[in-house]
Structures are given as structure tokens and as C-alpha cells.
């Protein structure tokens, strides 16, 4: 399997606070990678560095066979994502928000935006102003927006935030479909039951490093754990 993302010895410090200290991570094509860690462990910081939103202090990030540095702007067109809560133009419709984002990539036919809204289950509210959307609808719109440029690598920071159980299941089905189509997905979440149901691989970050990485089945089997939550809580106590 091709490697889509590789982080090698990545470091990031904010003022005097070392947040990421020699982080290594590898994600292969078509994987749905669950990125787990306690509050403040450095998940968002890492995802921002992968998306080119934050500079790496030391180490390398290779995305789709490109080294992430100041010269790698073209690579941003091949990545999509939601970092923290998605922000929209509230007085514009969901469809118009997608169009505005699509214009960054040269614009697409309206049909494409409508297909994305249908995929995430909010097609009927395409022309409704975003200020009338619920949190879950905004989250769905965020996923649609992240898919506008048909990215090969999709990065979702807490995508199930605000979703009800049906919404969470819908998102899982969408992610499985996208992964079957060959997209590679990284999800950070605290909803371990959700992660266990959808991810093919997980990486756990603690003390600025990945302390465990592997398939969910393998990690659970090796350690005789019932579920990911039990495994995660034990591991966090140990490290
Ligand atoms: N711009 C910044 N300046 C200073 N410190 C920051 C900055 N961004 C993040 N941090 C600190 O870096 C650490 C990691 O934050 P980060 O948001 O990456 O964690 P996280 O794993 O995503 O947490 P959560 O699960 O709560 O979202 C935290 O201690 C945070 O306070």
C-alpha cells in the first residue's frame, strides 16, 4: 500500500512549551486513521502542521510524496479538512458557502455542490441560510466543504462534534464510502466507540509522541482488551 502521509521526528514548541516532541506517524492510502489523545495532547497542532496551517519547528512531513514546506502550495489543493469547529458565512446559504470555497479551486458546476450536500444529507437545506442550521447540520456542511476539491487526503478534527447518533452513523457510512473510493482519512475524536466502528488504524499521542500505532483489532487482541475505550484509558495511565 502506498504511503500517503509520513511524519518523521516532528517537533513543535509554543513559546517555551514543547507540545510535539519527535512525532512519527504513517498513514497509507485508503486507511481511515483514528488520531487519539487526551485534551491538550497535541492532536489539533499536528493536524494543523499536516495541513500547512502551522510551521514545523524540526522534522519532516511528507504528504502525497511532497515535502511540506513553503514551496508546497500545490499540495494544499489535494488535501481537505475541518480543523476545530467549521466557520461559515452565516448570512449565506449552505450552497453559497460551498460555492465560495469552490471558487478557491477555480469553481465547479452547481450540480457538484448539490451532490456533496446530498452526500452529507442536507440537500433539502441547500438554500437555507447557515445561521438557521443546527450544530449537526453545520458539521455536515463542514464535511461537504472539505470535499469540494475532491481531496486525496481528508483531515477531520472532531467531525462528530454536535452530531446525534444517526448523524454519527451517517458520517461513518460517508467515510467508509470515501475510503472505498481510495481517499485517505485522518479523524481526531474523543468518541472512542465511534472511532472503533470506523477506523482501520489508530495512533495514540501522549507526551508529544505517538505511543501506539496499529490496527484496532491488533491493538485490542495483543492486550486482551474488550474495547478501544478500555485500552485507551489503561494506556494513558501507563505512559
Ligand atoms: N497557538 C498556541 N499558542 C500557545 N499554545 C498553544 C497554541 N496552540 C495550542 N497550544 C497548546 O498546545 C497544546 C496542544 O494543543 P492541541 O489543541 O493541539 O491539543 P488537542 O490534542 O487537539 O486537544 P483537545 O483534545 O482538547 O482538542 C495545549 O497545551 C495548548 O494549550
From TrEMBL:
InterPro entries listed in its UniProt record: AAA+_ATPase, ABC_transporter-like_ATP-bd, ABC_transporter-like_CS, P-loop_NTPase
Keywords annotated in UniProt: ATP-binding, Nucleotide-binding, Transport
Pfam families membership: ABC_tran (PF00005)
Domain ABC transporter: start-end pairs: 5-232
GO molecular function, one term: ATP hydrolysis activity
UniProt key word ATP-binding: yes
Gene3D superfamilies: P-loop containing nucleotide triphosphate hydrolases
Presence of keyword ATP-binding: yes
Family: Belongs to the ABC transporter superfamily.
Name of protein: ATP-binding cassette domain-containing protein
Taxon lineage: Bacteria, Bacillati, Bacillota, Clostridia, Eubacteriales
Amino acid at each position: 500500500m502506498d504511503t500517503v502521509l509520513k511524519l518523521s521526528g516532528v517537533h513543535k514548541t509554543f513559546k517555551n512549551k514543547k507540545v510535539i516532541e519527535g512525532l512519527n506517524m504513517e498513514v497509507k492510502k485508503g486507511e481511515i486513521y483514528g488520531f487519539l489523545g487526551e485534551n491538550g495532547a497535541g492532536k489539533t497542532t499536528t493536524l494543523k502542521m499536516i495541513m500547512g496551517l502551522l510551521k514545523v519547528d524540526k522534522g519532516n512531513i511528507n504528504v502525497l510524496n511532497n515535502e511540506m514546506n513553503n514551496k508546497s502550495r500545490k499540495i494544499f489543493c489535494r488535501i481537505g479538512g475541518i480543523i476545530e469547529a467549521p466557520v461559515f458565512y452565516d448570512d449565506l446559504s449552505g450552497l453559497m458557502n460551498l460555492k465560495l470555497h469552490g471558487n478557491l479551486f477555480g469553481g465547479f458546476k452547481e450540480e457538484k455542490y448539490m451532490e456533496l450536500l446530498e452526500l452529507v444529507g442536507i440537500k433539502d437545506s441547500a438554500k437555507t441560510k447557515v445561521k438557521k442550521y443546527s450544530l449537526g447540520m453545520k458539521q455536515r456542511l463542514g464535511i461537504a466543504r472539505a470535499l469540494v476539491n475532491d481531496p486525496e487526503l481528508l483531515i477531520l478534527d472532531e467531525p462528530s462534534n454536535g452530531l446525534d447518533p444517526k448523524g454519527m452513523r451517517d458520517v461513518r457510512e460517508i467515510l467508509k464510502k470515501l475510503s472505498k473510493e481510495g481517499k485517505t482519512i485522518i479523524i481526531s475524536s474523543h468518541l472512542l466507540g465511534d472511532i472503533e466502528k470506523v477506523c482501520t488504524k489508530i495512533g495514540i499521542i501522549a507526551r508529544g509522541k505517538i505511543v501506539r500505532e496499529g490496527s484496532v483489532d491488533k491493538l485490542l487482541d495483543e492486550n486482551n482488551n474488550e474495547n478501544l475505550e478500555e485500552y485507551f484509558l489503561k494506556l494513558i495511565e501507563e505512559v
